[in-house]
Every structure is written in C-alpha cells, then in structure tokens.
Amino acid sequence: MSSAENTARPVRDEDAFDVDALTAWLAERGEGPVTEVQQFRGGASNLTYLVRTVSTSSTNGGDLILRRPPSGKKAAGAHDMGREHGIQAALQPVFPYVATMIGHEPDESVLGSEFYVMEKVPGLILRQDLPEPLAPEEADALCGRVLDVLVALHSVDVASVPALAALGKGEGYVGRQVRGWIRRLDGSRTDDTGDWSDVLAWIEEHQPADVGQVLIHNDYRLDNLVLDEDLQVRAVLDWELATVGDPLMDLSSMIAYWVEADDDDLFQLFRRQPSNAPGMWTRREWVDRYCARTGHAPSERDLVFYEVFGLFRLAVIAQQIWYRYVNKQTTNESYALLGQVVSYLEQRCRRLVTEAGGATASGSGA
C-alpha cells in the first residue's frame, strides 16, 4: 500500500481557469512555472486542483494544491478561501498535521474567483475501497491512530493562537449549528425537497448543551487524511468548515459518513471511505472510544441527536449541491443522483428519530 490512488483528472471545462495567470501569481511567490494542472474528482464543495511546477523550493518537489469555490449560488459564509487558508496557516505551528501554505488571493480578477495555494502532502488517501487488503488488526490500529489525531486537534490550546481564538463565538455552538443548517436547507430547497418538519422539530427540541469549546475540523474522515506507507497520519485536509465549537459535534459529522459493513444497500452507495473493511470500528465504537479518551459522557438520547444531526447536515450539503445541479449552475453528472441521496438521508433521520422513542443507541445500524 505504497502509493495514493491517482484521482486527479483533466480539468472540467466549467472549472477551468487561466493557467498563465496562475503562473504569474506563483512566480511572485517564488514558485513555478506551471507545467500541468489537473482536477481532483469530486469537488462537491470547494474545487481542488493539482498544480505541477518545475519549482524545487517546495519540500515535495513542486507539486501544489489549489483550492477555489464552485460557481453558482453559495450559502452565506461558505467557501471562504481566506478563512480556510488562515486557519491552516495559524494552526501549523501548534498542530503538525497541516500542509504548508503558499498564499491566498482574494482578488477574483486573477483566476475568476478567490483561491489559495498550498504544498501538496505526498502519501496515501484512502478512498472508497482499500487499494490492498488490511488485516483486521491493522485496520483497528489505523482507527486508533486516526482517533489520536482527532484528540490531538481537540487538545490544541486555542487561546494561545489569536487567529484561532477569534473563530470562537462562545457557548451555544450546538444551537447556532442547528439554526444555521436549517437556514441552509430552506435556502436551497428544490421542488423535490422533502418536508423534514418532523425531523427538524425533533432536532430543535432535543439539542444538548455544549460540552466544550475546542478547535474542531467539522469534516473529519479517512478521505480527508494523508497517510504514509506505514499508515501513520501525515496531514489533515479540507479545513473549510473548521471552527471553535463543541467537540462532540465533530464526532457527529464523522459518524454520519461512517458506513458499516452491515448497513443497508442504499447507505452503502454513500460510502466514500473503507469504513466497512474488517477490523474497522463501528460508529458506536468511535463514540465510546472517543469518550473514553476525553472523559465526555453523553446520554443515549444525546447520542441519537448527534447521529441524526450529522445525517441531516450531510443531507443539507448534498441538497446545496443538488440545487446548483437542478438550476444548471453545474453540469457535473456525478451530482445527478443527489436528489435521491437527500431523500434517503431524510428517511434515515426519521427512522432514527422514531427509534429514539425506545432509547435506541447511536450507531445501531439503522
């Protein structure tokens, strides 16, 4: 398992930009010239490009990553490249799992949108399936290392880094998230969007109080990690949603993506990481082991809230992309089934809410 899956492809026409302009911009920062630009598959939120250069100043031989927002309607406050760049730049001295930043450009006239560039961290990114099988004990050990990095992130002394401390808005993070994601759903509805009212009423009624204020990633999962050949974590990617907030809400978003081997066939279609491989932890194991490490002790009903909210949040992310597809703001055919994804997640949330009346524990494989 010595090399990463090459997921970079030719740039989609709708996502192309002026490479000469990028070369000039990089030259001002001692990088380049650019020899090739490719686009990483997906790009469901921000667009991500591999920029190859002949530079030898970078520690990885000149491979860079460029991030920029998608075209079309965007949620207020979303796709803030300056914020994402600034978080990583501030975090790097106190958290070793961050790429080196090259620079941020707020002027949209350069490439047609705001963007930032960082060094590419070489290594393995685990996608939908493992490139080679892992023994169950190796998968278990990998989960342990991934947990170690999450705990380390939540242990960062935010107060000692002014740029990170500024992200915090104080107590009430859970409530702000509930209200914010409901607004995002309302702002991206299409004709086929479900009712959601019963699920949203349950979420609003059962939201727990914050358990703490720490730096959280908000999209922590295997395919946002770069691993070395020994499956040690080298870097955490995609800091778009990072902020200071409740650490259990970080766990909420993580388990929403964690598809287990015995989940139903439709949920299996969502799997973006090899979380179903033998030896990988279950959602409940993630919760229990994280809480054992951190001392948090949420109730069974609170655990249902975290799982339901994580799935709801995932549905809203899919709905926002589906809105852009329906309104022809993107022609990426990989988004053509997202309307069905949102519908399924609505049903899954509703099933968990119904089972919550019987004190069903989170991670029960609903």
TrEMBL record:
<dbReference type="InterPro" id="IPR041726">
    <property type="entry name" value="ACAD10_11_N"/>
</dbReference>
<dbReference type="Pfam" id="PF01636">
    <property type="entry name" value="APH"/>
</dbReference>
<feature type="domain" description="Aminoglycoside phosphotransferase">
    <location>
        <begin position="36"/>
        <end position="279"/>
    </location>
</feature>
<dbReference type="InterPro" id="IPR052898">
    <property type="entry name" value="ACAD10-like"/>
</dbReference>
<protein>
    <submittedName>
        <fullName>Unannotated protein</fullName>
    </submittedName>
</protein>
<dbReference type="InterPro" id="IPR011009">
    <property type="entry name" value="Kinase-like_dom_sf"/>
</dbReference>
<dbReference type="InterPro" id="IPR002575">
    <property type="entry name" value="Aminoglycoside_PTrfase"/>
</dbReference>
